[in-house]
Each structure stands twice: as structure tokens, then as C-alpha cells.
Write a structure and sequence with these properties.
Low-confidence stretches: none
Distance between the termini: 61 Å
Strand content: 25-35%
Radius of gyration: 26 Å
Structural class: alpha+beta
Number of helices: 2
Order of helices and strands: HHEEEEEE
Mean pLDDT: 86
């Protein structure tokens, strides 16, 4: 038991422990990047391109489930006609254009 504690207290063992810790932190950061950050940024880019191609006459579905046709597109607001009602919604709240849905949304 004492030999084990003595070996752990030597400078060589401490240097190896720090390099292993740095390696573990680097691997953890890589896993977080590839499993969480990268897929979210790719989904965000796909949603932005979906909304960039939005034009008058497209059938859209909002995040709240409202389905309608686009009447007018201005900056970040979209006017849609659903039934006999005309609604103004934020462009970012549109989750489906035609048959193409935004990534990460349930179908």
C-alpha cells in the first residue's frame, strides 16, 4: 500500500496523470461537438435554406399546426391564408413548406 502511494507521488506519475486528463477532456469535447453541436448547426442551416426559398403560393405548416398558403413574404413576417382567415406569422415558425419539413421536426 505504501509503495503504491509513493509511486503515485513521484513527479513522473503526476506528469502522466495530467496528460491523461488533458486527453480525456479533449475526447469529451470531440464527442460533444460531433454528437450535439455539429448536428444542430447543420439542421439550422437546412431550416434557413428551406425558409429562404419561401415564395407566394407555397403551402406551409406552422409550428402551431396551422396549414395555409403564403399570400405575402416580408423580411421576417409571412402572411398566410388558412381557410377564410388571414394570419401573419414569423418566418422562423414555419416548419414545413410543401412536402419538405424542417430537420428535427416530427412528421
Amino acid at each position: 500500500m505504501i509503495n503504491t502511494l509513493t509511486l503515485m507521488a513521484t513527479p513522473d506519475a503526476a506528469g502522466g496523470g495530467i496528460s491523461v486528463l488533458i486527453l480525456q477532456i479533449g475526447l469529451f469535447a470531440a464527442v460533444i461537438y460531433f454528437l450535439i453541436i455539429r448536428p444542430q448547426s447543420q439542421a439550422r442551416k437546412k431550416h434557413e435554406t428551406l425558409l429562404a426559398g419561401l415564395k407566394k403560393g407555397d403551402e406551409v405548416t406552422t409550428g402551431g399546426g396551422i396549414i395555409g398558403k403564403v399570400k405575402d413574404v416580408k423580411d421576417d413576417r409571412v402572411t398566410i391564408e388558412s381557410g377564410s382567415a388571414t394570419l401573419v406569422v414569423e418566418r422562423a415558425r414555419i416548419v414545413r413548406v410543401g412536402n419538405t419539413s424542417a430537420p428535427g421536426t416530427p412528421t
